[in-house]
Design a protein that fits this description.
Layout (H helix, E strand, L loop, with lengths): L6 H9 L13 E5 L3 E4 L12 E9 L9 E6 L7 E4 L7 E5 L2 E6 L5 E12 L8 E9 L4 E3 L1 E7 L4 E3 L7 E2 L4 E3 L3 E4 L5 E11 L2 E3 L6 E5 L11 E12 L4 E4 L4 E4 L5 E10 L10 E2 L9 E4 L16 E8 L3 E5 L2 E3 L6 E13 L2 E2 L9 E5 L4 E5 L4 E4 L14 E5 L3 E2 L4 E10 L6 E11 L2 E3 L11 E6 L36 E2 L10 E2 L35
Parallel strand pairs: 1-10, 2-11, 13-25, 27-38, 39-40
Antiparallel strand pairs: 1-3, 3-8, 4-7, 4-9, 5-8, 6-7, 9-11, 12-15, 14-21, 15-20, 16-19, 16-22, 17-21, 18-19, 18-23, 20-24, 22-25, 26-28, 28-35, 29-34, 30-33, 30-36, 31-35, 32-33, 35-40, 36-37, 36-38
Length: about 550
């Protein structure tokens, strides 16, 4: 919902001069945006009822500051007479009205970056003619500001690529392969000149074959954890794709569960060539002498639906691979005199073989529980670590706590070292002062071993200050060993911890972030819808909203 400032608040800002533009300063320029073109299913549609298409108008504010004056936005609907019927969504937000042939929206603040002005629902008019095109334009006005208008071409009919769902196996073993069948049709009224097939897979699932007309990219950008883990393949399939015709990819496309696969997923989509989502990631274009090809096939009754709607261009699937990830706590031994401040690097290492990623839920993979030995006081702790009381209960003060809970991000790579750098002051020398470092699943009063961790004995290690034997770190007694199982739970009990970050370095980061030594990444489709399919459910929805019309 767009943030708004009330009339009273805006008046108050104006009274103290906050809303007034600086004298002789140039007016800010704001850009209105909307899709370049949208297509409408011809009236009345296959179901006998008009099929709506939504058009979103937005405003971009790149001035770096909020514009605190009343702005009015107008859309003239008269060009759509006889072409399309327009309605405001029932659950709309904001101050918008539709009277006669005009939509008017008012807002008291234009916040920085992009925000929604209004979304319109369009359906083809009863007597509209296929192929008719009309312009839908939004303009804006405000004292002390200039607006660049936005225009969307509305067309009755057009091409409509519809992708059929592939029959895939959800339960896998490391190294297992299976074919990825791709079948699609053009259910629209016009041909498509060229199709782009896009396949996004998480780090544990890969495509075996390489083709010259395909590009391959991985998102390994550091500091972008919500995109981490994905690889993208885009294959451009030349030719004319006619209305009412069904096509299938003839060449082999094979999915493989990598040795580190565990809880993974994929999305696959078809777009009109040139309309596929763009990526800024480095792309690999192989030279194999092989080309991915498509053939026509006889249309069969099946799940292919028909509407001019990019949402039917894409499908999603989740996988669970039978695998384990061995999280090993690192023992720590320190020495120091009374009054000295010492540094300690706490954390754990994933010995693999699996990576662990809660891409659906976005929850922390693990918690590290650090018990501070007697005689020491924490003077510096990472952002993602919270000080708690000795029994694990809430504590307001972070520093000086007897115990700390530290979270990860939602991804821990198969060879990752997680580090939490602390500083401690030795207030009193206590020989063999002993605490502990434990890693596992979140619980109300600490941690417990994960079901998928094959060795629970190494989930806990000792933290010793001034060991009597000169530095040898004792090992705590063994705990029970769990049964390895790729649970893939949709509701892992880990609780998110703020401030966790991801690094692309090969060693534990100095800031307590995660060192990514094995996780590759690719642009996610997405902005955020749920991946609901068979298999594991712990994986964030990264559906990329289709841009343009297929």
């Amino acid at each position: 919902m767009r943030k708004r400032i009330s009339l009273l608040a805006a008046a108050g800002l104006a009274a103290v001069g906050l809303a007034a533009a600086p004298a002789n300063a140039a007016d800010p320029v704001f850009t209105l945006t909307s899709p370049a073109e949208v297509g409408l299913r011809p009236h009345p549609g296959q179901s006998g009822q008009p099929k709506k298409t939504s058009v979103e108008f937005r405003i971009e504010n790149e001035t770096g500051s909020v514009f605190d004056r009343l702005s009015t936005f107008t859309i003239d609907l008269s060009p759509l007479k006889g072409v399309a019927d327009v309605a405001l969504p029932k659950d709309r937000g904001g101050d918008c009205t539709l009277v006669a042939a005009k939509v008017t929206c008012k807002d008291w603040a234009i916040w920085t970056h992009g925000s929604n002005v209004v979304s319109l629902d369009l359906t083809a008019a009863k007597d509209s003619v296929v192929g008719t095109v009309a312009d839908l334009t939004m303009t804006g006005t405000a004292d002390g500001a200039t607006f660049k208008p936005a225009t969307t071409k509305v067309k009755v009919g057009g091409p409509d690529l519809v992708l059929g769902p592939a029959a895939l196996k959800a339960k896998l073993t490391p190294g297992e392969t299976q074919p990825l069948p791709i079948v699609f049709t053009n259910a629209g009224t016009e041909s498509v000149n060229g199709v782009a097939l896009e396949v996004n897979t998480t780090h544990g699932i890969g495509l075996v074959e390489k083709y010259d007309n395909c590009s391959y990219s991985k998102n390994d950008t550091p500091g972008r954890p919500w995109n981490a883990g994905w690889g993208t393949t885009v294959c451009v399939l030349d030719g004319e794709y006619k209305p009412g015709t069904v096509y299938e990819v003839k060449s082999a496309l094979t999915l493989k569960a990598e040795p580190h696969a565990f809880i993974d997923g994929m999305t696959y989509a078809v777009h009109a060539a040139g309309a596929q989502p763009k990526t800024s990631q480095k792309q690999e274009r192989p030279s194999t002498g092989k080309k991915l090809t498509v053939v026509e096939r006889e249309a069969k009754a099946g799940p292919l639906s028909a509407d001019i709607d990019p949402s039917d261009n894409q499908h999603e699937f989740d996988f669970q691979t039978k695998n384990t990830a061995d999280f090993v706590a690192r023992a720590v031994s320190l020495k120091g005199k009374a009054g000295e401040t010492v540094k300690a690097d706490f954390g754990f290492e994933n010995k693999g073989p699996a990576w662990v990623a809660y891409l659906r839920s976005g929850e922390d993979v693990a918690r590290t529980d650090i018990v501070i030995p007697q005689g020491a006081k924490v003077t510096k702790a990472p952002e993602q670590c919270s000080g708690v009381n000795a029994d694990g209960s809430y504590r307001e003060q972070k520093l000086g706590a007897p115990r700390y809970f530290c979270g990860t991000t939602h991804i821990v790579g198969e060879t990752e070292k997680v580090s939490y750098p602390f500083e401690l002051k030795i207030e009193k020398v206590v020989a063999d002062a002993t605490g502990s470092i434990s890693v596992g699943q979140w619980t109300a009063d600490g941690t417990k071993p994960q079901d998928w961790d094959p060795s629970h004995a190494n989930n806990k290690a000792a933290f010793v200050i001034n060991a009597k034997d000169g530095g040898t770190t004792p090992t705590p007694g063994p705990t029970t060993t769990g049964t390895p199982a790729p649970t893939g739970s949709a509701t892992p009990s880990a609780t998110p911890s703020a401030g966790a970050s991801t690094s692309a370095s090969t060693a534990a980061t100095a800031q307590g972030g995660l060192a990514n030594t094995g996780v590759t990444a690719g642009p996610l489709l997405i902005a955020g819808a749920a991946l609901v399919a068979a298999g594991g459910a712990v994986f964030l929805a990264f559906r990329r909203r289709a841009t343009g019309r297929a």
